[in-house]
Amino acid sequence: MAKPLTDQDKRKQISVRGLAGVENVSDLKTNFNRHLHFTLVKDRNVATKRDYYFALANTVRDHLVGRWIRTQQHYYEKDPKVSRARTFGRDSECFGHLLVSQQVEEADDWLRYGNPWEKARPEYMRPVHFYGRVEHTAEGVEWVDTQMVLALPYDTPVPGYRNNIVNTMRLWSAKAPCDFNLKDCDSPAVLCCPQLAEAPMFYVLQFFEGKELRLKQEYFVVAATLQDIIRRFKASKFGSTEFVRLDLSTMPDKVAIQLNDTHPALAIPELMRLLVDTEKLSWEKAWDIVVRTCAYTNHTVLPEALERWPVDLFRNLLPRHLEIIYEINRRHLERIGKLYPGDFDRLRRMSLIEEGDIKKINMAHLCIVGSHAVNGVARIHSEIIKNTVFKDFYDIDPQKFQNKTNGITPRRWLVMCNPGLAEVIAERIGENYIRDLDQLKKLLDFVDDDAFIRDVAKIKQENKLKFAAHLEEHYKVKINPNSMFDLQVKRIHEYKRQLLNCLHIITLYNRIKKEPNKLWTPRTIMIGGKAAPGYHTAKMIIKLITSIGDIVNNDPVVGDRLKVIFLENYRVTLAEKVIPASDLSEQISTAGTEASGTGNMKFMLNGALTIGTMDGANVEMAEEAGEENMFIFGMRVEDVDALDKKGYDAVSYYNRLPELKQAIDQISGGFFSPAQPGLFKDLVNMLMHHDRFKVFADYEDYIKCQEKVSALYKNPKEWTKKVIRNIAGCGKFSSDRTISQYAREIWGIEPSLEKIAAPDDPR
Could you tell me which residues are beta bridge partners of residue 331? Predict the structure, then answer.
């Protein structure tokens, strides 16, 4: 006999039903079976888990379609200004896995079985051109003798939270033109290439290697999206194919394009090309439209991460765009020359074209010049770009520069991935915090509430048990769920300092070996992330982590007191499992190098305490939660600057700190790689002689801070009180706040909380 439902169980069911918008469970079952039978042509005897997923996805999509259509009708009726961030193509991705403790990349054929959420829109297919040459005539400019591919749009519904709004994410797939319609091969509208007619476009794109492929992909997405934006702007009636709005000077009143880093920077010259060459506007009028439409978000201060494209590559692949960029630069430098007569060094620094053995186009400079707003993604990051990286540009256009601190959505990163915690919060302060995360401040009233403290700690332990079971099932690793789960999950990069984490692991290991009878706080240290395919140092860092784990995890003296796990193929689906289970979040980049971070916010919202430097959004997290409720260590930005001026001498730290010296000697001497004693000599050489990110300078303070972490973890009640204060301080880090600020302060749109009427079910 089934156990009767408690009030809490009923509440959870009601919450889930409300979220899904499903009023009738029997209808849901009927539609599920209908899709399994008619859409997938399967019955339960032969259906796989994937078939069940597709049937369910199609069932859910059915519930969205009416709202999706109604939303588009609503937008056409109201004609609001719309924002377009950069859009990615959909054909191929890559994932990394470990093979013999090393990262190996494989193609991720994620569309092999299709995608039940998307809808192809061949009626909006657009041509995209490459190569060719430019002809200047009395009538204007023509880009001729090009190679053409077709961009096929695929739309995916993006539902809002309990407001009946379903927005559209449009992705683009490249198609060979002759595959689309062979009869049109002689048509001037389609440039037919016999070699393209035989091959899927995926392979055509992949034929070009390295930088050319990357630039081709970036332009493909930009060109398709901009043509679509102009088509949509002109055809303002829902379902209309007639162009009813022809004055493009009003486009910035209806369209906002956010350049999310430099990857879509080609939107600036491409929009100029469309307005000047195709729409026949004057340069001045076109430039005014471009600047008022575009805005740029910077995501990094590392010089090597800012895109720079060889001029020769542009000349071959996008010759007309090179001409446009040169003209933008000429006018830009003319302005700088008038402001700073005779300052040729400033002209060199601010030019869009970098001179040298290989001339390159600085895409960040192009984004700044071609945008009306420039923002960083955390307050400290925005100050750095104003004061250092883009100081010359800030000096002439200070009004352009803003800050928009990143945020995360509480719907995914709390309600969905951590329903237990979401529920105990709702029991105390109600459910409205899901829409207004600032209401989490009300939890400060419960910091000393023993029942709430117990509930929060209980949810954390349940999540840890679940993740421990997941690790055992999928990684064949057994861990102690009563140990502290210490997490560092992010891209593998020198500036993120996974190496500093490694040095702490080795130090802790050596201490346990030295005093095996001491009462140590048990830790399971998990590091996850991917290295860029060509980033050798990052791959060696992964190898070091796994090699340390091989020694530590198999040492009987250490036992369950310390385990080291490298989380293979770290991705969102794994993050949704591990973040709710985490006790400690490692955010340990060198001060002044991390733009913002969002993983730090996700851990904070899910009840992990942070050990970190005053970098990126950590600074604002400390302000919101109280620095005393985080484990802050290490140099501040001004300390790093002072050390740069003085000169960073890693060897001096090595000679002064015995535990650091022992750890480095073990790495370089082959203790963690007995079969290949010299395996990590390059890493050690980098740390000792050319470490830009000053790992040794923060080592001593980091180790002391970790001792404080271990001491507090032995007092679960006080630990959980700090957890509650951190959760209560998360309100600022909602993406709702971030997007509202973008809307009001960059796009010139007032965010709307309006709900639209639910459509009648067509069935």
Answer: none
What is the helix, strand, coil percentage profile of the chain, to 5? 55, 15, 30
299 is catalytic: yes
CA distances in angstroms from 35 to 31, 60, 380, listed in the order given: 6, 11, 51
Q: What is the mean pLDDT of residues 58-63?
A: 94
Among the listed residues 598, 610, 613, 720, the single catalytic one is 598
**Is residue 245 very low, low, confident or very high in pLDDT (cuts 50, 70, 90)?**
confident
Mean pLDDT to the nearest integer, 486-498: 98
Supply φ then ψ for residue 278, to 5 degrees: -90, -45
Count how many residues are written for the chain: 763
Q: Which of 496, 530, 694, 721 is catalytic?
A: 496
Catalytic residue status for 598? yes
Active-site annotation holds for 491: yes
Q: What's the pLDDT at 434?
A: 97
Question: pLDDT tens digits for 361-390?
Answer: 999 999 999 999 999 999 999 999 999 999
Q: Alpha helix locations (H) across 377-514?
A: 379-384, 391-396, 410, 419-429, 450-474, 498-514
Residue ranges of alpha helices (H) inside 377-449 are 379-384, 391-396, 410, 419-429
What pLDDT score was predicted for residue 301? 93
Q: Is the pLDDT of residue 180 over 80?
A: no
Window from 156-160, 238-242, 258-262, 302-306 with minimum mean pLDDT: 238-242
CA 264/CA 208 separation, integer angstroms? 19
> Is residue 610 among the annotated active site residues?
no
Average pLDDT, whole number, for the chain? 91
Question: Strand (E) positions, 287-383?
Answer: 294-297, 308-310, 353-354, 360-362, 374-376
pLDDT of residue 23: 60
d(CA 405, CA 382) in angstroms, rounded, equals 9
- How far are the Cα atoms of 336, 347, 365, 367, 650 from residue 339, in angstroms, in the given order? 5, 11, 18, 20, 43
For position 239, what pLDDT does the model report?
Answer: 58
Which residue has better confidence, 364 or 101? 364
Measured distance CA(124)–CA(147) in Å, rounded = 20
DSSP classification of residue 89: B
Query: What beta strand segments (E) does 193-253 contain?
Result: none
Bridge partners, residue 401, by sequence: 374
In sequence order, what are the residues at sequence separation of 6 or more whose Cβ sits closer than 8 angstroms to the Cβ of residue 107?
Answer: 92, 93, 94
pLDDT of the residue at 99: 55
Write down the catalytic residue from 491, 571, 636, 737: 491
Above 60 in pLDDT, residue 311? yes
- Which residue type is seen at 7? D
Q: Report DSSP state, residue 419.
A: H
Average pLDDT over residues 343-369: 97
**How many angstroms separate the Cα of 56 from the Cα of each of 61, 320, 473, 499, 738?**
9, 48, 25, 44, 32
| Active-site entry in 70, 216, 602, 732 | 602
**What CA–CA distance (Å, rounded) separates 688 from 366?**
37
Which tokens go with 128? 């995209």
Q: Which of 490, 504, 539, 561 is catalytic?
A: 490
Q: Of the residues 81, 126, 299, 435, which is catalytic?
A: 299
From the list 283, 275, 293, 357, the residue with the least C-alpha distance to 326 is 283
| Exposure class string for 198-219: b at 16+ Cβ within 10 A, else e | eeebbebbeeeeeebeebbbbb
Mean pLDDT (whole number) for 106-129? 94
pLDDT of residue 370: 98
Angle at 409 between CA 404 and CA 411, to 5 degrees: 160
Three state DSSP letters for 370-381: CCCCEEECCHHH
Q: What is the DSSP string of 701-756?
A: HHHHHHHHHHHHHT-HHHHHHHHHHHHHT-GGGBHHHHHHHHIIIII---------
pLDDT tens, position by position, 203-214: 334 434 578 999
